[in-house]
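Record filed below.
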Amino acid sequence: MQISFTAEQIATILHGTIEGDPSIAVDNFSRIEEGKPGTLTFLANPKYTRYIYSTKASVVLVNNDFVAEQPVHATLIRCFNAYAALAVLMDMVEKNKPQKTGIEAMSHISPDVKYGENIYVGAFAYIAENVKIGNNTKIYPQVYIGENVTIGDNTVIYPGAKIYRECVIGDNCIIHAGAVIGSDGFGFASENGAYKKIPQMGIVIIEDDVEIGANTTVDRAVMDATVIHKGVKLDNLIQIAHNVEVGDNTVMAAQVGVSGSTKIGRHCMFGGQVGLGGHITIGDNANIGAQSGIISNVGSDAKILGSPAIPFRDFFKSSVVFSKLPEMYRQLARLQKEIEELRSNQNQ
């Protein structure tokens, strides 16, 4: 943590209630199964409940409805949502760390770039003509920012990220190392047995409070814009194709692939390796399980899994049968043979 807090101070910050010693202090975080004295941990997933009785951590954040079945030696702080409370504390600690500012030598900033106060530009970063950068934004070494890009306030762009020309990045965004924003969409027209490139004339718009993981790519539109709306969180190694629109506060785990012109609603959740076909619509609050293949429209509030995806319950019922298919096939073959023999005997 770098700084020390007592359980009482933490409970005040989180509007929680204390069970145990309010004066005990912590100066670091730990996992509940590896907790050490002087650290704070949390319990949100019931699978880890057994560790709360043996953890050496000094303070544990728990949900209000937690019921101890054995003695707990740590001081507990009850919160409405222990995981969200942990995020509040970690964010507070992160913001108290020393912040980089200034422009390092060996970076290139075009003379007509407009930037706000307290920015940081690392060595070997390249910022092209007519770029606009807001206050408190941090651009780490080896970042490339193309012509006419706009970047808002309090945004962080980590090393090696590339932002192509004319793209728009909002406030409070995080773009991790190796991400590419605004590369050409995969657009080719077949002509006389060869493929002719279709120029990608649009841009990418990333709204406020978006986080984009390492080595994730968001392609520019053929025309108009590929849009990542406010609050979206994209994991590492995700591909967002041209003219896709991702609705507010949607989250995607690693290796999701979204084909061109697909529209995704608000508050959706995608497991890892989900693949979406092009020109389809996903409704609000859809929950799509890992490795699902989506080839047609999905309604709002749907919960689907599989490839091609079907409702969760149907998939789980079907999965019970999958391992039995070889034996069922053999039984079917025997029955077909018996039926053929019976028909043969009847015809004699």
